[in-house]
Amino acid sequence: MIVADVAAWITAGATAVLAAFAIVAAIVAWRTLVTERENLSTAQEQLKGAQRPVVVPRTLEHPKVVDRPDSANNILEVAIENIGPGLALDISAKATLLDAAGMQSTNAPGCVSSVPAAVLPGATGAWSTTRLHLRASGWKEGACFRLELEYKDVSGSRRHSRAAYYGDPPQWREIKPGPP
Question: Is the pLDDT of residue 25 over 50?
């Protein structure tokens, strides 16, 4: 009888220890699953970040205002480049004339305050350069302006960049790639 009671207690104790190990194993497995999901989410975000384009004006080139004597519309030519690793799709641009203080020009004679968007429907690959041609009625060489660029990445997310060009001394300033 005593041997049977001891065997029952040993069996009960072993069953309880086995149940405790099973509970601990389930908790460890659940925590591992949660950690792996977080790691996967982080890896996906890093992959998306590695595919994002960043389109900015090409700072080594000054924009030009091309005079068109046969038309009232001059052409503002701006070189832009994609300095990000991803493709930039459907690039559009808007240029706003600024006064010498860097404020939006509201009463510049013969100048429009906004240039209609120029859309490049193709793709601009990583580290590639292209030229935008925007209608700039009445603008002259050395004009100060703010350039706003909008584009999509390969996932279709909208991105944008802004920059300001000042003609005296001629340089790009305030280049700000923005979030989507």
Answer: yes
Residues 33-74 have pLDDT tens digits of 999 988 888 887 777 666 788 888 988 888 888 877 766 678
The reported pLDDT for the residue numbered 114 is 43
94 and 133 assigned to the same domain: yes
The span from the CA of 175 to the CA of 173, in Å, is 6
Q: Provide the domain count of the chain.
A: 2
Q: Rounded to the nearest 10 degrees, how much is the dihedral formed by the CA atoms of 89, 90, 96, 102?
A: -10
Dist CA 121 CA 91 (whole Å): 7
The single residue listed with the structure tokens 């808007």 is: 94
Whether residues 168 and 127 share a domain: the answer is yes
Same domain membership, residue 134 and residue 153: yes
pLDDT at 75 over 90: no
User: Is the omega angle on the peptide bond into residue 53 within 30 degrees of 0, that is, cis?
Assistant: no
Tell me, yes or no, whether 98 and 161 share the same domain.
Answer: yes
Angle at 140 between CA 134 and CA 143, to 5 degrees: 80
Listed residue (167, 164, 165, 115) closest to 138, CA to CA:
115
- Cβ-contact 128, 120 below 8 angstroms: no
